[in-house]
Amino acid sequence: MTAAGKRGYLQSRARAAARRNAVQALYQWELNRQPIDGIIGEFQTERAEMEKADQAYFCEVMRGVVLHRNELAERLEPHLKRAFPQLDPVERAVLLLAMFELVYRPDLPWRVVVNEAVELAKMFGAEQSHKFINGVLDAAARATRAAEIGAA
User: Fold this and answer.
1) 3-state secondary structure of 71
2) 3-state secondary structure of 96
3) What spatial distance separates the first Cα and last Cα of the chain, rounded to whole Å?
4) Are 136 and 73 in contact (CB under 8 A)?
5) Tell me, what DSSP letter sits at residue 82?
6) CA 125 to chain centre
7) Per-residue pLDDT reduced to its tens digit, 15-45
8) Which is the CATH superfamily of the domain at 3-151?
9) Does residue 120 contact residue 97 with C-beta atoms inside 8 Å?
10) CB atoms within 10 A of CB 53
11) Using CA atoms, how far apart are residues 14 and 67, in angstroms rounded to an integer?
12) What is the pLDDT, as a whole number, of residue 10?
């Protein structure tokens, strides 16, 4: 593996660790609505896996999702069969994280965003939630990233 390839691989793993922790932190925030900086600090000091995570990306995602939560939920609503607040809290956390990436991180390919969210749903969600997440995000990506998807 080349040095650039290894760097990309390590960055990818660090970002995946940041996403895993972000889903857990967003779940906690969705349930308790504690100040986000307190949750970020708690995760950074008390979670061993955070040592492997991209800390800057974790903070960006956490603050971004909280700041834009209502907008992100509104963008997801047309692709849901029930109201966003009625979703399982884990599904809400995964969907908010992925929608943030689709809207505010155009440097990330849409397929990567959707695939990472599906993996998070398999890891943390109910037995079939990954299928639900995949369907919702596929539709949301087509609405949000139409030009990118059309060019693919």
Assistant:
1) helix
2) helix
3) 27
4) no
5) S
6) 13
7) 999 999 999 999 999 999 899 999 999 999 9
8) NusB-like (1.10.940.10)
9) yes
10) 22
11) 23
12) 54
